[in-house]
From TrEMBL:
UniProt entry keywords in alphabetical sequence: Cell membrane, Membrane, Transmembrane, Transmembrane helix
Subcellular location: Cell membrane
Bilayer disposition of the protein: Multi-pass membrane protein
Taxonomic path: Bacteria, Bacteria division WOR-3
Main location: membrane
CC per GO annotation: plasma membrane
InterPro entries attached to this UniProt entry: Na/Pi_transpt (IPR003841)
Name the record gives this protein: Na/Pi cotransporter family protein
Organism: candidate division WOR-3 bacterium
Pfam family, one: Na_Pi_cotrans
Length: 365
């Protein structure tokens, strides 16, 4: 059945359809998270028994988070183990670093929805990979420093003691409020067949993405692009603030970045504009976690949350002034994977699954 030409539909109808597609898109991301968590949550927890050294912790963090697609789940397990004395904070810190890397798999899945259009795919895949380039560069810089001088451990411990008893804030995510009833209903139906939930999520993701892209092409006028370009992403500080505040609001850096991927694919936003936005999402998700951790009053929870925050703040402080390097690496890798699309799949499989798993097994011996 051929879909009608969207450009012939009245603008209000197209806007309504776009909002429906956006909801379906965000719902699919939440369903992906629920599906990954159901299938891989148990496996992710068993990985922590293999965490004996800081470098192993890094790869456990990547793999555990990639499997369940929830850095908050990984961090929650870390908090529990640290609080129980079963995981040393010096090993927990690399796990948190790894969780920062592993949480971006969803972005790549979104970019694969544009694989049929090379230019759009290159822009979308590059946007996805940009997040990881920043995280990997930050780990490459901070992990050796942490091993030698322990700046994250010491500063997070000091902050945890300083803020002990201050109290925090725990507020509901509008995204989760809007999607949770549907996610819980579908997850209940799929109990015992979690793979079906993942299949449904992927079908919904790619369908909603296709509709969103088509509607964006028909809706985005020069004036709208000007508003996005000038007022939301007019300068780096503004883009950073948008990413930070948006992520704090919906409490999901995966969703915040996933929304940016099709905008990049459509050519509405550039990598240079999205780089500070991505940094803002990284920091935004940790601020929300810090506020929630402070509510508990648990020193271990607060320290782990501060580790996550400080890792991203230090990374921003270093790589934003030196952004030419991560942007150059992003363009090189993104361009290569767009020309040889099989390598885009290999990149995801190797970076998030194969290399971490093999490394953890080898280090365990």
């Amino acid at each position: 059945m051929k879909l009608p030409d969207l450009r012939k539909l009245p603008a209000p109808v197209r806007i309504a359809l776009f909002l429906v597609a956006l909801y379906a898109f965000l719902l699919s991301i939440e369903l992906l998270g629920a599906g990954f968590k159901s299938l891989g949550g148990g496996f992710a927890k068993t990985l922590f028994s293999l965490t004996a050294a800081p470098i192993a912790g890094l790869f456990v963090g990547i793999l555990a988070t990639a499997v369940c697609q929830s850095s908050s789940s990984t961090t929650s397990v870390v908090v529990g183990l640290v609080a129980a004395g079963q995981l040393d904070i010096r090993v927990a810190i690399p796990v948190v670093m790894g969780a920062n890397i592993g949480t971006t798999v969803t972005n790549f899945l979104v970019s694969f929805g544009l694989v049929a259009r090379r230019q759009e795919f290159e822009r979308a895949f590059s946007t996805s990979i940009m997040h990881d380039v920043f995280n990997i560069l930050s780990v490459a810089l901070l992990l050796p420093l942490e091993t030698a001088f322990r700046p994250l451990e010491r500063s997070s411990a000091w902050l945890a003691r300083a803020f002990a008893g201050v109290g925090g804030l725990n507020f509901a995510s509008p995204l989760k409020l809007a999607t949770r009833p549907v996610v819980e209903f579908l997850a209940g139906l799929a109990r015992g067949f979690e793979w079906a939930l993942l299949v449904l999520a992927l079908v919904l993701l790619f369908t909603a993405l296709k509709l969103m892209m088509d509607l964006m092409r028909s809706l985005i006028s020069g004036r709208v692009e000007l508003v996005i370009d000038r007022y939301l992403f007019g300068n780096a500080a503004r883009a950073f603030a948008v990413g930070l505040l948006f992520t704090m609001l919906i409490q999901s850096s995966s969703a915040t970045m996933a929304i940016a991927v099709p905008l990049a694919g459509a050519g509405i936003l550039t990598l240079r504009q999205l780089f500070p936005y991505a940094l803002g999402t990284n920091v935004g998700t940790t601020i929300t976690a810090n506020l929630a951790a402070l509510v508990t009053g648990n020193i271990a929870a607060v320290q782990v949350a501060f580790v996550h925050l400080l890792f991203n703040v230090f990374g921003v402080a270093v790589w934003f002034p030196l952004r030419a390097l991560p942007l150059a690496l992003t363009r090189i890798i993104g361009g290569f994977c767009a020309r040889h699309r099989v390598f885009s799949v290999l990149f995801v499989l190797l970076v998030f699954f194969a290399i971490p798993l093999v490394t953890v097994i080898l280090l365990r011996r």
